[in-house]
Design brief:
single chain; 539 residues; mainly alpha; 3 domains; two-stranded antiparallel ribbon; 63% helix; 5% strand
Amino acid sequence: MTIKQFFNSPLFIILSGLAFFLPFLGTVHLFDWDEINFAESSREMLVTGDYFKVMVNFEPFWEKPPLFFWLQALSMKIFGVGEFAARLPNAIIGIITLYVFYRIGKEIHSEKFGQIWAMLYLGSFLPHLYFKSGIIDPSFNLFIFTSVYFLIKIISQKKDRTKNALLAGIFNGLAVLTKGPVGFLLFFLTFLVYMTTKRFRGLPKIKHFAVFALAELAITSLWYGVEMYNNGFWFITEFISYQIDLFLNPVAGHQQPFYYHFLVVFIGCFPLSIFALGSFSKNPKQGNPDFRKWMLYLFWVVMLLFSIVETKIVHYSSMAYFPLSFLAAEYILKIAESPAQQKKYIRSLFLFFGIVFSLLLTLVPLVAQNKELLYPYLKDPFAVDCLKTNVEWAGFEFLIGIGYLFGVVMAFMLFKKTPLKATAVICYSTALCLLLYLPLVVSKIEAYSQRPAIEFYEELQGEDVYVKPVGFKSYAHYFYFRQPNENNQKRMDDQWLLQGDIDKPVWFVTKSTNKKLNEFTGVKKTAQKGGFVFYVREP
């Protein structure tokens, strides 16, 4: 294999995923709420030995089915409970996702298209970052996309339809087992939109529907069926009721305007979101026009559905990144084959947002190192106290942003004549930037926010005490204190811990702006670090 063949091979794509997704996974603490919440549910599976009940604080957690927690629990069983094990499943899913893009891109278009598709996903901000996280969505998105891919094959190909129906059912079942009924809803709505545009001509045969349904039922029964058998319908009823409430009402204060997800996707998916703009307006003759329609329908189904949903969280619309990256790859391949077809406004938008991102990446460490300048402008005393945390900076961290600016400018200059080289430059510049930013900058920013409280919880691990945050919601004490099963919710209410006949010491953590604990007799302030104050009450 020559050097050129190596860089154009699927092996290079896999090695790129290994090189950019795996390093530094455990450098930064898990973030409240979702990362810590999910990791704690996985840890509690190991503590109780019950892998069928998803719990937080050893009480039922109605929000998610268990598949992702099984992956995390397996990782923790092998590598120990911690940040690396909690994030490893998504890093592996990321590598698989890049390979899937390459294989599907090669099948529906060309090997070059598959390479571009994988490279764009590797080198865009939010798609890349989620593979270094401990949230559920990367796994869920891959299962949904794969199930839609096999659905497309059922309709578009005459051969192997039964096999494709089986695979579509299996992967959609895995999606439902990962995040609940929304996995089937996205799949079904995309199918419904496509068939409506075709006036329901070419519907799969009844036997293919049956194979799909049986495969999905078999997979989802691994949990839903077992739970109904063991606990009756009440558990599933509670689970579905929570999902409906999540759809109809803004849960946990996550209420945003209708256009929220459009902004998140457009800005957060740089640079692929910019390139995708060039592929929305016209249907190209080359490639696979029918597959392109499926990607457009999938994109709009995701964006519109989660714009309607009252609860709006950043990663809810992350499924849209998959079809959007396809459209971006389509545009890049088109201008690679004919540079004259480039659209000037896309190059201008690319340069503008590239400079903006570069400036932000440069300014964050510089501002953090001169944080005193911010104090007069901050109206929140808690934020000021957080910034007073002593954090050591090396002083060169801003150079990451400068280096990224260099990559943006170089890519911009290359786009006019060699779009493929330009795409490689910006994608690998983005991936390298994020690889370095996590341990060198994000880890220090985290020190200003949640780290003082987390380090306090870690110091209490193994001690026979109660631990309770007061005045703010958090899951961090469960995971980082390693909350034991016996410290159950029934005895952990504030009134009993603050005034009741406690049987062991209670440690309280509160924000520096909350003075409530000073009012209670026997509750003593022991220390303050950053924006957090620590109290103890002895029995």
